[in-house]
Amino acid sequence: xxxxxxxxxxxxxxxxxxxxxxxxxxxxxxxxxxxxxxxxxxxxxxxxxxxxxxxxxxxxxxxxxxxxxxxxxxxxxxxxxxxxxxxxxxxxxxxxxxxxxxxxxxxxxxxxxxxxxxxxxxxxxxxxxxxxxxxxxxxxxxxxxxxxxxxxxxxxxxxxxxxxxxxxxxxxxxxxxxxxxxxxxxxxxxxxxxxxxxxxxxxxxxxxxxxxxxxxxxxxxxxxxxxxxxxxxxxxxxxxxxxxxxxxxxxxxxxx
Length: 256
Ligand SMILES: [Ca+2]
Ligand SMILES: [Ca+2]
What we know:
The mean pLDDT is about 90. By secondary structure, the protein is mainly beta. The protein folds into 2 domains: about 1-35, no CATH class; about 40-255, Jelly Rolls, CATH 2.60.120.200. It is globular. It has 2 helices and 22 strands. The strands form 6 sheets. It has an 8-stranded antiparallel beta sheet, with no helix packed on it. A 6-stranded antiparallel beta sheet has the order 16-15-14-9-18-19, with helices on one face. A two-stranded antiparallel sheet has the order 1-2. It is about 5% helix and about 40% strand. The structure holds calcium ion (2 copies). One calcium ion (CA) binds near residues 37, 38, 39, 40 and 183.
């Protein structure tokens, strides 16, 4: 809610030199708090690999969501791999700059892809954080980007379930790497919806995923580690399934 001083709405209130992040009426907090993203990971686009200890897998007959935040820029690679399966060319998500499709989900035999080429996605690499959310609708995969419903990507063949173990590279071909910052990767068995995606997006401020989902996500990579660390824990309810980073250099963990 806006705070009005005289006739002017203000979005930041400072006492002395300190931002005030909450306002109370008596003991009641007046401002809704946005999600604290903590740190994020910034692959450099050259040979960055990351493997989970065991495969992130959800059957094709079970409802699920895959959600993450990304930030691309003019120096992002032409094709940026988000998540893949290391021992097959058939399972991957990519985001592409400069040409369509901008976003692809493929799970299953090669060339059975959901592709999204909508003009509303063309600015995903504009240097700002954006929210990407896929969910299962029987044999189709639907995309919600920044809270906007883009529907299914028109694959001609049914997609299998979630089946990933590699982040940031198409490990099997070793020719596609990610140069896109990423945070809060969530994979969870639940029935997805546009409304749920919008709740997670929440006008860019983000909402606490546990609150939105009504449960701790099963697989949840927050990247809230220190620069130089190479082990990203699964903060989800499915338990230990560390993501081990290889070939990262420079300041690859930064505040969101
Ligand atoms: Ca590298
Ligand atoms: Ca984070």
